Amino acid sequence: MTQTAINYMMLRGGSSKGLYFNAADLPSDTERRDQILLDALGRDARQIDGLGGGTPLTSKAALVSVSSQPDCDLDYLFCQVVVGENRVDTAPNCGNILAGVGPFAIESGMLKAQDGETRLRIYMVNSGKECEVIIQTPNRRVEYTGSASISGVLGTAAPIVCNYFELAGSACGQLFPTGNTLDTIDGVDVTCIDNGMPVVLLNATDFDISGYETPAELDANQVLKARLQSIRLQLGPLMGLGNVDGAAVPKMCLISPPQGSGIVNTRTFIPYKCHDAIGVLGAVSVATACLAPKSVATGVATLPASNADGSFSLSVEHPSGEFTCVLNAERSEQSFKVTSAGLVRTARLLSRGQVYLPATD
Ligand code: NQM
């Protein structure tokens, strides 16, 4: 019985890594597509029979194609292969894997790079939102080497500037999906927000922890995890996400006052494992909640003055460093809206070739 081979590349995108495919190389039928992704990355918790790394940050795939949208260059569908659960979730988006989409498209000949830098507009199929990326491409080739460093990745690499537009309601339909900036569940105040990623912000001190514990310590805290899951399950329907048992969103973010020069300190469960850092769009959502007139971050977060152009540079602290995003916002007594979020990622091509899928009978 022969195996089937499919072209792929593996790239590190930001502080994640995943398999990148030309969408045309996979079936359009979602059931058959998902079976291929599961075979390629691995179905069991260790992903021993696939290329996935057995953690949420290394069990990801991107399906890329020339865009179907008039104002975009590329379409990007993010697929989370849920570790150990033998299924694929396309509800969330991923701003880390997005950083590798442009390099993949150029490396695979899907589109041509400019000499110097290449600006591409990416349509994020999961959310219907758009992001402009600026990639270093001297001599029309992707430059991976450079001086940008990001938390969670050793060393430095060429910057990939990502400018996200109008992210509000990416999965839930509105910025504050419950209709409130504050809700109380199980006696705990929460802020549910979706500015690119559905996130629930909670005060660490409401859970008898400081919020500065290591991810390993928090992962071992079964009482904390059970309380978070109870709140999550109740919030799923209120956030328009339905039954979120086993779903990748919403993420649960415990906040506490900053320890360094950031605006807030975070420990984020994605959603069952504590992130060693914080996701890109997760950080944008947390920063947005901090900037909002009222949220559980009020009194916890420390906001800087705006930049000369009116934008805000907001540094979100996390277990392995900080994540800075630059938000442009319209803030008044009556309304609050974030119009764009800018940030820097890096990416690197790790391997390319063919991934083999087991013969079916
Ligand atoms: O929030 C982790 C990551 C992510 C997702 C997660 C991400 C994002 O660190 O945009 O990048 O929240 O599951 O890659």
From TrEMBL:
Domain of life: Bacteria
Any one GO molecular function term: isomerase activity
Keyword Transit peptide: no
Keyword annotations of the record: Isomerase
TM ranges: none
Protein family: Belongs to the PrpF family.
UniProt-recorded name of the protein: 4-oxalomesaconate tautomerase
Organism: Arenicella xantha
Higher taxonomy: Bacteria, Pseudomonadati, Pseudomonadota, Gammaproteobacteria, Arenicellales
